[in-house]
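Table S2 (continued). Query chain:
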Amino acid sequence: MKTTSMLMTAALAAGLTFALPTLAADPAAKSMLKQAEHSHDMAQKQAKADEKSADAQCGVKSGDAKGQCKKDAEARYKKTMADADAALEKAKADYDAKK
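Corresponding output:
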């Protein structure tokens, strides 16, 4: 009887040892996902503001310089958004993996 009790206690302890890190990771993963979503929103707003500012600066230029300025501004916007999207997708994948 005592051996059975000890085995049950050991099995329960082993189960909790493996289960608790999973339970603890879930709130942390959720928090990191929310942070990534917030960072994505902020990056999107900043990219739009930067693009608007760049368009204003390009407006005073003329000819090829103006065209190149607009292309550079668009490329910076696209890169910023691609980086933000990639970071958000990574956070979503990490969250899904830890669920």
